[in-house]
Amino acid sequence: MNLRSDMLRGLAESLIALEGDHPLRVAIDGITASGKTTLGNELTSAIAEREHPVIRIRMDDFHHRREHRYRQGKDSARGYYDDAYDFDALNQHVLKPLGPNGNRAFRRRIIDLASDTSIDEPVELAAPGSVLVVDGSFMQRHHRENWDVVIFVNTSFDEALRRGTDRDAEQFGGHAEAQQRYADRYHAASRMYIGEVNPAQAADFVIDNDDLSSPLLYRNSM
Q1: In what residue span(s) does the Phosphoribulokinase/uridine kinase domain sit (predicted)?
Q2: Mean pLDDT confidence for 25-38
């Protein structure tokens, strides 16, 4: 038995069953390196496999420009929490158009993160009944009312640190440097978020994700 596949299948079917009069807007929330992007990709595939229209967007494509997101310093936890992501742009270009009385015309991204270049691509038209899947940090801090479903990926800081430093060591110049960046900036900001928002409690679904092969799915509401 593949417990992760079973969980994804059940979650995908639960979301499809929530179809309403506008696309279902699903946020995947969690601390840095919790497994949000992996879950978002897997969930998108599980929905598509059921021949249901799905839209995949990442908050990495809705960052602020470097000048804005580092204005409090590259190592600042407060700067990461306040300045990294452009949630207002996501709301304007994605959540509202796909919401009640929206025209379903949305944009997939506003920035090329690697080159720090703004992007103005043509809008796309979402199919009726689509499921939107967006992963990112701090997803319940702004415009919470415009998410139809929030999934919180609940991963311990120790496990997320292990995953994050393995993933980002080369980028940051080694494991020690990556661990320091996580401690000072990314996970320090995540602790601010947990203290302010209590995102696991506020989410509709919670996935305990320390054991990737055996995630546990909980439903808080709905």
Answers
A1: 27-194
A2: 97
Nearest-CA neighbor of 43 among 57, 59, 30, 32?
57
What is the CA angle 186-187-192, rounded to 5?
Answer: 100
**CA separation for the pair 30, 49 (Å, rounded):** 25
Under 8 Å between Cβ of 137 and 84:
yes
The residue-averaged pLDDT of 46-71 equals 97
Residues 70-111: tens digit of each pLDDT:
999 999 999 999 999 999 999 999 999 999 999 999 999 999
pTM above 0.70, yes or no: yes
What pLDDT sits at residue 222?
52
Measuring CA to CA, how many Å separate 214 from each of 4, 19, 57, 143, 186?
Answer: 6, 28, 26, 32, 26
Give the tokens for residue 217.
């799915």
Tokens at residue 173, please?
A: 């110049």
Instruction: Give the DSSP H or E segment for 206.
Output: strand 205-208
Q: How far is CA 89 from the centre of its chain?
A: 15
What's the CA gap between 146 and 27, in Å, rounded? 10
Structure tokens at 158: 């120790």
Mean pLDDT of all residues in 33-43? 97
Give kind and range of the element (H or E) at residue 159: helix 157-172
Q: How many CB atoms lie within 10 A of CB 4?
A: 16
DSSP annotation of 183: I
Bridging pattern class, strands 149-154 and 205-208: parallel
Q: CA 89, 90, 91: angle at the middle one, nearest 5?
A: 90
